Every structure is written in C-alpha cells, then in structure tokens.
From TrEMBL:
InterPro entries: Aldolase_TIM, DUS-like_FMN-bd, DusA, tRNA_hU_synthase_CS
GO molecular function: flavin adenine dinucleotide binding; FMN binding; tRNA binding; tRNA-dihydrouridine20 synthase activity
Organism in which the protein naturally occurs: Zophobihabitans entericus
Gene of this entry: dusA
Coiled coil stretches, renumbered: none
Protein name per its UniProtKB record: tRNA-dihydrouridine(20/20a) synthase
Keywords linked to the UniProt accession: Flavoprotein, FMN, NADP, Oxidoreductase, RNA-binding, tRNA processing, tRNA-binding
Length: 339
C-alpha cells in the first residue's frame, strides 16, 4: 500500500499544491554536511513537489545533544527526518518527537557504510540483522501516524544475492511499506563512503525486479541518477526516484522536477530568481547570527555551465566569509551572471 501525501503544502509565494502522487515519487537524498536546513530551504524554492530529506541525525544527538537537531523551516514541507540508530526504544522516542514537530515522514538509515556509523551499530551493517530493523520500524510505527520508511542497499559484503535482499525486505515489510533502495551493495570494510558510492557496480535491474516481485510495496530507486530524463525512465519500473549529488552540485536540475515528473504547468524558476528569492531568508538568518557562507555554500553550483558561473563561485568563495558579508555580497556576485 503506497503512502500518499495529500496535505496542502504552502510555499513562500503563498501558493499551494495538492499532490496525489506517492510521497517518494521524487526526493533529494539525505547527505551528511550538505542537506541542512539552509540547503533544503533553497531546494524548496526550486521545486514545490520533491520530498526533501534531512541529513542523517542520530537518536543520541536528538535525545541527549545540546542543540535542536529537529529544527527545520515550515516552508520545507514535505520533509522527512532520516534517523540513525538501532535501539527500538530510542528510535520510537525520536519518531514521536519528530511527528510532534510536524515532519511528514521518518526514514531509517540502513544504507550508510562509514566506519563511524558501523561503530554506532546503524546504517548498512543493519542489513545483516533484518529482524532488528523490523523491530525498530515497528517500534516507530507504533508511536506515529506518519509513514516510517527504510533506506537501504541491495546488499553488503558477500551478502549480495537477490535472495538475501528479498529476505531482508520480507522480514521488514510487515511494518514498512516504502523502501528507498540504493542500487549498489556496500562494502563495510576496505572502501571509504565515497568509494562505496562509486566502486560497487549499479544494479538497477535488481531494484526493478524487487518492485515486480513485491508490487504492493512502494519502491524508490537511488544511486548514480544524474538527470530527470533518467528519472522518468526509472519511473516506468519503480514508484520513486531519489537523486543525491547531482541535485546538490547542480541544483538547477530541481527547477524542472515539478513540470517533468509531476505534470505541473507553471514555468520553472530560473537560477537568478531562486537566488534572489533567498535574500529575505538570508537577511533573517544573518540577524540570527548565521554567517553568510553557511548558507551560500549551497548555492554555488546553481549556475553551472552558464557564462559567469566560475566568477560567481569564486566571488562568493572569497567574500562570503568576510566580516560584514551580507545580501549585498550576493548581489555583487550575481552581476557576473547578468553582465
């Protein structure tokens, strides 16, 4: 049974949309140190329909950390919180807190292969203990009414057969109807997280087969997707597409999501319009003490391939860290694109 997102989503312009597509039809992947609240705010200006994910947040950070690890902007909806953890009780507490804060979905990380994540006994290593994953998801689902989903790999280490993947899915599926599947296996030792995104070969056909064999599940595909044309092709075989680094490094691709994948008729926003639409937010954040470079680093790739893009990036890289850097700094950088 697919989860459908049917609440009204209010965007900065004051307009709203009512979508009956699966919530995960298109999403921007959770990326540590990248998809923070400033990044998500910018991405939401580019697409009203895509599901946005937080960076992975551990249960320990939420329950015992000094900061507010659940903070986000209301304009980000629909937005999903990705949790890292393996203690069902702690995950359930965090899921409840997230629901109370208004998140639209909870996602459990069963895909990250880093040593730090493994040492905390969460991420991809959990694929070897499907029953624990099932217990974690059940504990969260018992506490919240919003969807609880799982982001996973197609396998780990030598456990990379299709039967292994199916056994994992079948163990967890009584409590989870949506799986986002990174179409690469993960090597838990010997490869860095970066290498785990590049070296294990992609196997999209295995994810397609998963959808064919479990038609009642919502299956989204992730890994190596670099264009919306590719996304359209994947959507012939699965329910959703998750785009990662391409969406971050070349964010203008998101400006076409609503038209190409959701059938919206409005004209896509331009890169310059999106940057200018960030100005009120930037001014607000500066008043709150946020340095300009913490925000504008997410905007550096918006003009990739355009005349003036290199000067735009260079100017911001050299000036956004300076004392007193503000919206005027952004305006001056934009002059390289408008000359």
């Amino acid at each position: 049974m697919a989860h459908y997102f049917i609440k009204q989503v209010f965007i900065l312009s004051g307009h709203h949309s009512l979508s009956r597509y699966p919530l995960n039809r298109f999403s921007v992947a959770p990326m540590l140190d990248w998809t923070d609240k400033h990044c998500r705010y910018f991405h939401r200006l580019l697409t009203k329909q895509a599901l946005l994910y937080t960076e992975m947040v551990t249960t320990g950070a939420i329950l015992f950390g000094k900061g507010d690890y659940l903070a986000y902007n209301e304009q980000e909806h629909p937005v999903s919180l990705q949790l890292g953890g393996s203690d069902p009780v702690a995950l359930a507490k965090c899921a409840k807190l997230a629901e109370e804060r208004g998140y639209d979905e909870i996602n459990l990380n069963v895909g990250c292969p880093s040593d730090r994540v493994q040492n905390g006994r969460f991420g991809a290593c959990l694929m070897s203990d499907a029953q624990l994953v099932a217990d974690c998801v059940k504990a969260m689902q018992d506490e919240v009414a919003i969807p609880v989903t799982v982001k996973t790999r197609i396998g780990i280490d030598e456990q990379d057969s299709y039967d292994f993947l199916c056994q994992f899915i079948e163990t967890v599926m009584p409590y989870c109807h949506t799986f986002i599947v990174h179409a690469r296996k993960a090597w838990l030792s010997g490869l860095s997280p970066k290498e785990n995104r590049e070296i294990p070969p992609l196997d999209y056909l295995r994810v397609y087969q998963l959808k064919q064999d479990y038609p009642d599940l919502t299956i989204a595909i992730n890994g190596g997707i670099k264009s919306l044309t590719e996304a359209q092709e994947h959507l012939k075989y699965v329910d959703g597409v998750m785009m990662g680094r391409e969406a971050y490094q070349n964010p203008i691709v998101l400006s076409q999501v609503d038209q190409m994948l959701f059938g919206c008729q409005n004209a896509p926003i331009s890169g310059i319009e999106a940057v200018q639409a960030m100005f009120p937010y930037i001014e607000q954040q500066l008043l709150a003490g946020t340095p300009l470079n913490h925000i504008c680093r997410h905007l550096l790739g918006i003009f990739n391939g355009q005349v003036g893009a290199r000067q735009w990036r260079r100017y911001l890289s050299e000036n956004a860290t300076k004392k007193g850097a503000d919206v005027t700094t952004m305006e001056r950088a934009l002059e390289y694109l408008q000359s």
